[in-house]
Amino acid sequence: MACTEAYKEHIEYTFNAFCRVVIYYAAINAWRDRDRRRQREISFDYLTEEKFYPFCMSDTCFIDPYKQYPVTICGQRVILTNGELAEALSSLPEKKREIIYLYFFGRYTQQEIGELYGRCRSTVWHHIHSALHMLHKEMEVIFREES
Question: I need a surface site. Which of 29, 39, 114, 130 has the fewest CB within 10 A?
Answer without folding.
Answer: 39
